Amino acid sequence: MAILALALGVAAMVWIVDRGESEQARVKIATDALWVEQTLRFQLSIHEDLLVRLALEPPGDDVRTVVDPRVKLHIATNPEVQSVIWYDGGGRIAHALPGNGSPQDHRLVELLREGGARATRPVYGDVTEDGLVVIALPLTGSEGVVSATISIPILLERHVPWWIAEQYGVRVVTAAENTVAARQKLEPAVGNPQHAISFDPPLRGMLLQITAYDTPAAFRSALLLGTIAALATFAILSLLVVYTNARRRRRAELRLRGETAFRQAMEESLTVGLRAKDNEGRILYVNSAFCNLVGWKAEEIVGRLPPMPYWDPSRVGEAEERQKRLTANGAFSPSFETRFRHRSGREIDVQVYEAPLIDASGVHRGWMGSVIDITEAKNATRRARAQDEAMARTGRLVTLGEMASTLAHELNQPLSAISSYATGMLNLLDRDDFDAGLFRGVTEKLAQQAARAGFVIQRVQDLARKREPHFSEIQIDQVIRETIALLAADAREHRVKIVADMEPARSVAADTILLEQLLINLIRNGMEAMADRRTGDTLTIKLLERGDNAIIEIADQGAGIDPDVENRLFEAFASTKAQGLGMGLAICRSIVELHGGHLSFRYGENGGTVFVVQLPLAQREKRAMGEVR
Is residue 23 located within the same domain as residue 147? Predict the structure, then answer.
């Protein structure tokens, strides 16, 4: 309260001083305005007296020789007098000084001629926009009039003292404050002290207005006094500000503690492990989820340098190399997969997301890692892959079962040929004229038929054998040709002609048996689709290379896909065949996705269906296989 009272007292003192100075300034400007008014009125009275004397002079040339020098002297000593004019009884100019007596006020002259006998003092006309006014008086003893033209701007310039002009702007204005004449060295600011006095008479409807250029110097002293008082008050208020800031800082600290506790609670409630380390690999922070993941307490690992106790011994070299790259040049992988070992010895597969750790000043302090346990996800992936492999093997066995009669026929041909060639060889041996060349030719044909039978048996064994996928670079056109050869008998049975249109293509990284199973399923599906209803008898296989992908298109001329199943065509147990299990295309999709490719279909231009297999070429496929494995 004391501080408030002091501030109010200082404010009251400044206000009282300001009011006193303002009153003094008001009185001074009013006094100066009256002084200027009297000076201008006095000067105008001098010009009025001149006209009175001229009006009393009798007309005549001998008199004019005496009057003209006196008038010229008056004009020379008073430049605001622009001209003196004598008018005759008809209102015409009888004589003028100087020159022709311009400018003139004929209306005023006519007014005085009509009622001039009643005028004893000069009469003033209206002030023009240029600040000119005409004063006139009837001549005594005649009907003439004598007038003088006065310039108000020159009047102000000549007869307002310099000390007034230094402090004030002096103007003659109309009632609407339109300036007629002014003497001022600069434009006064709005709100500066001002005083106006009526200047009517003699100037009809005019006001004399003076405006101060600046606030009075006395007020500056009061302002200085107020400033000193304000500084004293500021010293007191600063203590109040310090006290207020101290309270505010305490409240901020409390909020900061609460915020820190809240953030720590959020970090501790996360199921994702958080680990911060500096540029040398020293652990700076771990949350409880990370500790639970590796089985070590925070105080046991915070502050430790590599190698870490939770690193997998088989991957210590890999982890140290990664940390060396971070320390040397800051090169880091935003995400990588590795393996930790729990304190109990259990292995844990983890996905680590690394990001730079930047402090509040923008300095790179280290690295922040989010560690996610993907052990169960990896196990689920392995189980799903095993199931896909089992399903693929089952599909191969089912395919072999469906192709049993065709394969038996395919084998029967080379075996019959082998039997025939063997009988012929025995007959050749029994002949007396044994022909060794003929015998060699028969033997070679027998070997060819044995190789043909062996190829069929080898393919059956490969399709039936339980095995892990083995990816290698293969020529996809060669696999297509071998598959077509294997299905040649099946094609003849379905009365289908298989046409291959293959562009030269680079190799792909694939499993030969799985790729062959994929082609067998798609080709047999096409032949079976043409069994009941067809628009032709040709099944076309195209091999294209587009960008980084090899494209295989298998187009049949069957009835097409039933619209009811097209949206779930590649799902398990979705089939367009009456006796189908709906596993073939699902297996095909799994095989293609295992190779990092894509399987789709479209309707043929002339009916039927076109299945499109897109497989990455070898260079790109290797990366895809690395991610899958």
Answer: yes
Find the CATH number of the domain harbouring 522: 3.30.565.10
What residues have CB less than 8 Å from 89, skipping those under 6 apart?
113, 142, 143, 144
Q: What would the pLDDT profile of 19-52 be if each residue is shown by its tens digit?
A: 666 677 778 888 888 888 888 888 888 888 888 8
Mean pLDDT of 68-93: 83
First to last CA, the chain: 80
CATH number at residue 338: 3.30.450.20
Task: Specify whether 328 is located in the same domain as 412.
Answer: no
Type of residue at 347: E
Same structural domain, 515 and 497: yes
Measure the CA–CA gap between 518 and 445, rounded to whole angstroms. 33
Number of domains in the chain: 4
Please give the residue range of the domain that contains residue 516. Answer: 471-629
CA 6 to chain CA centroid, nearest Å: 54
Q: Report the amino acid identity of residue 585.
A: L
Apex CA 69: angle with CA 66 and CA 70, to 5°? 85
Q: How far apart are the C-alpha atoms of 586 and 580, rounded to whole Å? A: 12
Closest Cα partner for 150 from 67, 48, 34, 38? Answer: 48
Within-domain flag for 234: no
User: Do 417 and 503 reside in the same domain of the chain?
Assistant: no
> Does 414 sit behind a cis peptide bond, omega within 30 degrees of 0 on the bond before it?
no
Q: What is the mean pLDDT of the chain?
A: 77
Helix (H, G, I), strand (E, B) or coil at 106: helix
The residues facing 133 across adjacent strands are 150
Query: How many CB atoms within 10 Å of residue 463?
Result: 19
Which among 111, 612, 173, 130 is positioned nearest to 122, based on CA atoms? 111
In 3D space, the residue among 55, 99, 83, 73 whose CA is nearest the CA of residue 148 turns out to be: 83
Q: Tell me, yes or no, whether 320 lies in a domain.
A: yes
pLDDT one-digit tens code per residue, 499-517: 998 887 778 988 887 888 7
| Residue 183, domain member (yes or no) | yes
Amino acid at 237: L
Length of the chain: 629
pLDDT surpasses 80 at 384: no
Kindly state the tokens that stand for 52. 């009175």
Beta strands in 471-558 (DSSP E): 472-474, 497-502, 508-510, 538-546, 549-555
Q: Report whether pLDDT(460) > 70.
A: no
DSSP alpha helices (H): ranges in 369-507? 375-402, 404-430, 436-464, 476-486, 488-493
DSSP string covering 4-22: HHHHHHHHHHHHHHHHHHH
Closest CA to 29 of 221, 179, 189, 211: 211
Rounded distance between C-alpha atoms, residue 86 and residue 295, angstroms? 125
Give the dihedral sign, CA 587/589/590/596. Answer: positive
Helix, strand, or coil (residue 246): helix
Examine the domain organization and report whether 52 and 98 are in the same domain: yes
- Same domain? For 178 and 315 the reply is no
Listed in sequence order, the residues at least 6 apart from 102 whose beta carbon sits closer than 8 Å to its beta carbon are 83
